[in-house]
Design a protein that fits this description.
The protein is an all-alpha fold. It contains 17 helices and no strands. Among the domains are: about 130 residues, Ankyrin repeat-containing domain (Serine Threonine Protein Phosphatase 5, Tetratricopeptide repeat, Alpha Horseshoe); about 70 residues, no CATH class.
């Protein structure tokens, strides 16, 4: 497809949107009121009075948006207005606009406050406890829209913390991110920086389980330095797509290697931590004038199985042993020499 043909398609879409905007709020006073609330200083009390008996707040405008969509997109966020709209029109929470998006996505995209996002999440539990979000499409939307990494992480974090029984299909997301854009998908694509942000979010949980800081830094640096030679002004070409697929394979290989090697270090780490813990208990006993020979007999070596010391005391010694600091600096001498990514 030529650039001209593609441009004609985009022009037609823009023309449709312009025509829709001309009659967007016809017969929809609640929608219009919310749209201009950032200018007219609409209060929650005023909105509640207007909404009384007005069912138009359940309807959608020519863009498929409810009043809740419009509020979530607003530059001025008012918690009270959210309370009124959701109480009056709870169906707004699960109504999708013409792009298939929910108000929650726009609230996160617009960087709404923690209080507002939490209220939206809670409202889903109250009014629509069995609703299933399409998290995969929501994450894809953020990737294709080039949203900041912080917003992408926030969206993924909401799924992990509040809707953990629902999953994100990262395989589908990454497959689309490494594929050439298609006409049937309106030539949507994920640019280089958002692509790298998606990769970071995809591996974040696995990466956090690797206890060696330097390995985590190595992976993140490798991702940061990746370049697929794509031009953001043009559509992805086959060469860039191949580089992305190869890169994903390299990241996964590196993660698997680090996970395996870190697993082999755990026994050493445990023994080192126990030794430091024992040392701290012994030092404390000396400070208190205790009998070291008797204490050592009770300690039973490094195992600490038979330590006849109060749990609070033992826990305090574990905390003050500074094992986390020592282990962090000792581990680099115990790990294999790093190899290049392959």
């Amino acid at each position: 497809m030529s650039d001209i043909e593609e441009g004609d398609d985009n022009g037609a879409v823009k023309s449709d949107i312009v025509n829709a905007l001309k009659s967007r709020f016809d017969g929809l006073p609640i929608h219009e009121l919310i749209y201009y609330q950032s200018y007219n200083g609409l209060s929650a009390e005023q909105l509640e009075s207007v909404c009384e008996g007005d069912v138009s707040g359940c309807e959608t405008d020519t863009l498929g948006m409810t009043p809740l969509h419009i509020l979530a997109c607003s530059t001025v966020q008012d918690f009270g207005l959210y309370e009124v709209l959701i109480h009056k029109y709870p169906q707004n929470l699960i109504t999708k606009d013409k792009w298939g998006e929910l108000p929650l996505l726009y609230a996160v995209w617009g960087d709404a406050s923690y209080e507002i996002v939490l209220f939206l999440i809670t409202s889903y539990y109250v009014y629509h406890p069995d609703y299933k979000f399409d998290w995969t499409t929501m994450v894809e939307t953020f990737g294709q829209a080039c949203v900041p990494m912080s917003m992408l992480q926030r969206l993924v974090g909401i799924q992990e913390k509040s809707f953990r029984t629902q999953r994100i299909d990262w395989g589908t997301i990454m497959q689309k991110a490494v594929s050439m854009p298609k006409r049937e998908d309106n030539y949507q694509q994920t640019l280089l920086e958002p692509f790298k942000a998606l990769v970071k979010c995809k591996i974040m949980n696995r990466l956090s389980e690797i206890g060696l800081k330097q390995w985590r830094i190595d992976i993140m640096t490798f991702i940061e330095l990746f370049d697929d030679d794509s031009n953001p002004r043009f559509k992805l070409e086959l060469g860039s797509c191949r580089k992305r697929r190869c890169f994903l394979s390299q990241v996964d290989t590196a993660l698997l290697r680090f996970e395996h090697e870190y697993q082999t270090l755990k026994e050493t780490i445990v023994q080192l931590e126990l030794a430091l813990w024992k040392k701290r208990i012994s030092e404390h006993a000396e400070e208190e004038g205790g009998n070291m020979e008797e204490l050592n007999q009770m300690m039973g070596g490094l195992g600490l199985q038979d330590v006849a010391v109060e749990e609070g005391f033992r826990e305090q010694c574990r905390i003050t042993s500074q094992s986390d600091v020592v282990i962090e600096h000792v581990l680099p001498y115990l790990v294999p020499v790093q190899r290049k990514y392959k």
